[in-house]
Each structure stands twice: as C-alpha cells, then as structure tokens.
Please model this.
Amino acid sequence: VAPEALLGVVSDPSPGTASDHSDALFQSHVLRPQGPVDAAGLARALATGGAGVVRSKGHVRGLDGALWLVQTVGQRAQATAARGSADVGLVCLGLKGQLDTQALDALIDPR
Model:
C-alpha cells in the first residue's frame, strides 16, 4: 500500500465497489421503530426468533426513553446504552431468500 494512501493524502482515491459475491449471498432489511421498544427483548428476538438474521446492528429508543445500541451475531445478542446521538434504525442481514422481512417488521409493529 502506498504511504500516501495510508496517510490520507491521495488526491483522487479510486471508488470502492460492492462485491457481487456478497450481493448474491446476502440480503438486508432495515427496521425503523416508530416508538420505544424493549431493546434487550428485540435483540434476543433478532438472534433467536427464526427470522433468518445472521447479523444486525443499529440504534433503537428503549422503553426508558434512552437510546440503545442493539447488535446480534448468530444467536448472540447485546443491547447497551448508546454513547452520543444516532438515528434510530437497525440493519438486519441474512442469507438471501431466508430473511423473513414480514417477521422482522412484526417485531417492531406487532399489530
């Protein structure tokens, strides 16, 4: 790697491109809760609820009114108090054709 690139002095870096490989294997879905949610409960449901989520990360407004960072990897789930401010939204990734977007939407709007 050129030292200029490491130091951030490249005048016109080449744009990155998404891998066709990842697009063929995975799909994503964004959850945007309109109100407060049980952050820990949502994290557990994403990790173990059977909607096909293999990874998720984002921020939600908790039942306590605070902003929470929700992260899942496989069946591991974590909800921690967020530092600073962030937009509410949670990106969920799953294998293409196995991500149940209706089930995910029902987690934040269980009508």
In short: The CA atoms of residues 5 and 12 lie 10 Å apart. The chain is about 25% helix and 30% strand. The longest strand covers residues 53-61.
